[in-house]
C-alpha cells in the first residue's frame, strides 16, 4: 500500500441505509476536501477514520495509513490527529499542560519535554505562554495551541472538522495558512470536512462532494 491515507472502498451504513461510499487516496502533504450538505455523513466519515464510529453504523472497506491497515485499531493506536471546530483545550490544565498532554511518549525526560513544549509555542508565535489559563486566550490563540497539541502527538495523518469556522475572517486566514503549512512541512495527508468554499480554495487540493 502507498504512503498516505487510503480510503479503500469505504462504505458506511445505518441498518439497511447506505450513508456514504468513498474511495480515495490522500498522498503525503496533500489535502482532500470533503463537502456536502448537513447530514450527508461528513463527520461520520471522519469518525470512521479516527476509530470513533457510533455503534449505530456499520463499516465496510478498509482504511490504510502509510501501509498499515488501521480499520480495526483502537483510536489511540491509529496515529491520526484531528482538529475540531471547538478547540477542546482542557480547561483545568495550563497551556503548557495541554501541550504536554499531547506530547508523544517517545519524548522522554522532564527537561526534554519542557523544551519540546516551549519550541512548539514558539513555532506558533506564543513563546512564554506555558503558564497561561486557556480561558484567557483569544480564539486564534486557542486554535494555535490546539494545532500544536495535535502535532506534538506525532500523527501520520490530519483530519479537520470545520476547524476554522468559529474564527473571525482575519484570524481564519492566518490559522488556516498555519495549519496547511505545518501539514505540508510534515508531509501529512489531510482530510478536511468543511462547508466553506474558501477553505477548499485555500487547501488547493481535490474536493469530493457527498450527497
Ligand atoms: N451517533 C449516531 N447514531 C445514529 N445516527 C447518527 C449518529 N450520528 C449521526 N447520525 C446520523 O447520521 C447522518 C450523518 O451525520 P453526520 O453528522 O455525519 O453529517 P454531517 O455531514 O457531518 O452533517 P453537518 O454538516 O450538519 O455536521 C445524519 O443523518 C445523522 O442524523
From TrEMBL:
Residues 5-211 form the ABC transporter domain. Signal peptide: none annotated. InterPro entries: AAA+_ATPase, ABC_SmlMolc_Importer, ABC_transporter-like_ATP-bd, P-loop_NTPase. It comes from the Bacteria. Keywords: ATP-binding, Nucleotide-binding, Transport. GO terms for molecular function: ATP binding; ATP hydrolysis activity. This is ABC transporter, ATP-binding protein YnjD. The lineage of its organism: Bacteria, Pseudomonadati, Pseudomonadota, Alphaproteobacteria, Rhodobacterales.
Amino acid at each position: 500500500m502507498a504512503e498516505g491515507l487510503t480510503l479503500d472502498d469505504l462504505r458506511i451504513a445505518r441498518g439497511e441505509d447506505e450513508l456514504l461510499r468513498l474511495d480515495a487516496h490522500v498522498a503525503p502533504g496533500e489535502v482532500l476536501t470533503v463537502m456536502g450538505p448537513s447530514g450527508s455523513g461528513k463527520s461520520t466519515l471522519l469518525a470512521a477514520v479516527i476509530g470513533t464510529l457510533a455503534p449505530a453504523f456499520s463499516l465496510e472497506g478498509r482504511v490504510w495509513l502509510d501501509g498499515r491497515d488501521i480499520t480495526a485499531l483502537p483510536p489511540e493506536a491509529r496515529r491520526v490527529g484531528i482538529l475540531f471546530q471547538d478547540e477542546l483545550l482542557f480547561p483545568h490544565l495550563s497551556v503548557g499542560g495541554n501541550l504536554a498532554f499531547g506530547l508523544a511518549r517517545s519524548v522522554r525526560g522532564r527537561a526534554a519535554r519542557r523544551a519540546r513544549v516551549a519550541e512548539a509555542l514558539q513555532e506558533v508565535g506564543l513563546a512564554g505562554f506555558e503558564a497561561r489559563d486557556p480561558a484567557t486566550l483569544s480564539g486564534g490563540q486557542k486554535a494555535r495551541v490546539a494545532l500544536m497539541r495535535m502535532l506534538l502527538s506525532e500523527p501520520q495523518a490530519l483530519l479537520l472538522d470545520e476547524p476554522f469556522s468559529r474564527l473571525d475572517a482575519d484570524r481564519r486566514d492566518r490559522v488556516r495558512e498555519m495549519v496547511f503549512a505545518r501539514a505540508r512541512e510534515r508531509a501529512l495527508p489531510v482530510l478536511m470536512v468543511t462547508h466553506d468554499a474558501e477553505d477548499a480554495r485555500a487547501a488547493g487540493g481535490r474536493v469530493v462532494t457527498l450527497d
